[in-house]
Amino acid sequence: MSDATNLERNGFTIVRGVLDREAVGELIALLEPIITASPSAGVRGLAQKVPRIRALSESPAIKRLVEPVLGPQAKMIRSVLFNKDQETNWQVAWHQDLSIAVKDKIETDGFSSWSLKDGLVHVQPPVGVLENMLTLRLHLDAANESNGALWVLPGSHRFGRVPAGDAAALAKRNSKTLCAAGPGDALLLRPLVLHASRKAVSSNPRRVIHLEFSGAALPEPLVWNEAA
After folding, report:
1. 10 Å Cβ neighbour count for 215?
2. 129 near 222, Cβ under 8 Å?
3. For the segment 134-188, what is each residue's pLDDT rounded down to a tens digit?
4. Strands of 120-124's sheet, edge to edge?
């Protein structure tokens, strides 16, 4: 089954060996000072802090994964470093990624649940906006059940917007998949697919570069906040 078919059918796919060992090592070296200076679960606006991340998002290796799904006009609209280990350890309940970051709060039809996260304006857009997005998670370490790899509910991206209170029950009734990955592997994920992660129980780190892409501009006057 091709990556595109797998993504369409299941809402996710794992692509092996997107980055080689040397490229992974270079990224770890670039990111280590940020992790050391501010040990936390996540670092938002990663591309603003590390310009290499912007270049990576526009590289042929990433474009060949994103453009067949979203088209050649696709651009990165969020970049986050997730660093899960024994010191920065957390569990994430079953959920969909329903919020996007915009530059300003401007009331617009279909956009609701406005909020501020780390000083950035977030809002839940219409489902159509989320369906035209793709998340790409680049693994810098091996990710497995012991260090909090992502679990997903295959096909749940077709359920539309799922009420938060129903997510756990849906996951309980359906089969789930653990997205085990190696260094340099990429997990492609539709925002509407239900996913979760458990706390790490091993000392092995799970560092992930989380990039979100959109294939279209937002309806005016809203604008993506690419500093998210």
Report:
1. 18
2. no
3. 999 999 999 999 999 999 999 999 999 999 899 999 999 999 999 999 999 999 9
4. 100-102, 120-124, 112-117
Contact predicate 94/167, CB 8 Å: yes
Chain position carrying tokens 């089969």 = 175
Residue 168, amino acid:
A
User: How many whole angstroms from its chain centre is CA 164?
Assistant: 19
One-letter amino acid for residue 220 of the chain = E
Tell me the mean pLDDT per 10 residues along the chain, length 228.
Answer: 85 97 97 81 90 96 96 96 85 96 97 93 97 98 96 96 94 95 98 96 93 97 93
The closest of 106, 89, 102, 5 to 42, measured between CA atoms, is 89
Which residues are within 8 A (CB) of 64 and not within 5 positions of it... i.e. 6 or more apart? none
Q: 53: burial class by Cβ within 10 Å (0-12, 13-18, 19+)? A: buried
Prior bond of 221 cis (ω within 30°): yes
Q: Which pTM does this prediction carry?
A: 0.95
Q: What confidence tens digit (pLDDT) does each residue in 119-128 have?
A: 899 999 999 9
Bridge partners for 177 per DSSP: 152
- Taking the CA atoms of 197, 203, 204 and 207 in sequence, report the sign of the dihedral they define: positive
